[in-house]
Request: fold
Amino acid sequence: MPSTWVRESIHRIERDFQRSADTHLIAVDLPGMPQVQLYLKDESTHPTGSLKHRLARSLFLYCLCNGWIKEGTTIVEASSGSTAVSEAYFARMLGLPFIAVMPRGTSPAKVALIEFYGGQCHYVDNPGEVYSEAARLAHARGGHYMDQFTYAERATDWRGNNNIAESIFDQMRSEAHAEPRWVVVGAGTGGTSATIGRYIRYNRGATELCVVDPERSVFLDYYRTRDASVTAEGGSDVEGIGRPRVEPSFEPGVVDRMIRVPNAASYAAMRVVESLVGHKYGGSTGTNFCGALELACEMAGRGEQGSIVTLACDGGERYLDTYYNDKWLAANRYDIAPHVARLTAACATGRWTPA
Ligand SMILES: Cc1ncc(COP(=O)(O)O)c(C=O)c1O
Reply:
């Protein structure tokens, strides 16, 4: 029999969910391609500012119902930031200590948010060490390692229950092209793409799933070769997506296509998206937009009508010191000008110029 604390904790999370509204689906007109309607699922409007709010809620419920979290349990997570921000929020709600293990250099804005929700940040120099360090810390504290990379695909109900796919398809139902031709997302844990891919197949939809991958990430190579031992050096430099190892929650079997996106193009796309919708979003949103725009141009080139949905994963205010900072771009040798021109021309003409 679960304790009163466990039952009350589940109820507290459900009450918080009841108080929350779903995120918006924004229609984005592409002047050069009136026959292709693009939509941006704005996950930055969650209480903790990113798509990871859904995952954090699912992970806490999963661990409470598995008996892995009890009153006073210290929660530890390996995260580039967004998941840690959302988990710190739920840990505080349940009165639990929270430690986030992350690469040194994670955006100061995210560190401040984790600390705002009462979390503690623990740094590693090598991004590849976040997993072992988080497991070591949890063990040393008698706590629980949430391990989003392993459990993201398991903790999320891919058949429904207001997962991100159900929310998208529900919000699309009155649109001219209610069944999207493509859904385009990136992968960090792979949980979002696994959820959307499974949902489409479970509902026997015709929509195809495209996953975009930044530089220094293994997912595209793994998708092509299915060699799970492939690794990559250093971080992807697009926070939240791209991984140095194949993550257990990434499910290549539900992916119909993958596209590699240069980092400079992702940062350029952040500015193009801002010019189209008037809001700043993060790097992974730029990566998503590049993939969606390339597919839109292909459809326009074939004279195909239809819709494409992609994600705005988190807000741009977290990256004012990095991707939106010209000094940071120059210091990291990212020249975005040719990509801004290329992507803006594609929006205006429907013709795609490869990077
Ligand atoms: C900003 C951002 N975008 C995209 C993703 C990728 O989502 P997933 O882990 O579900 O693959 C993450 C994951 O951490 C993220 O933080």
Residues 50, 52, 80, 82-83, 152, 186-193, 239-241, 282, 284, 313-314 surround pyridoxal-5'-phosphate (CB under 6 Å).
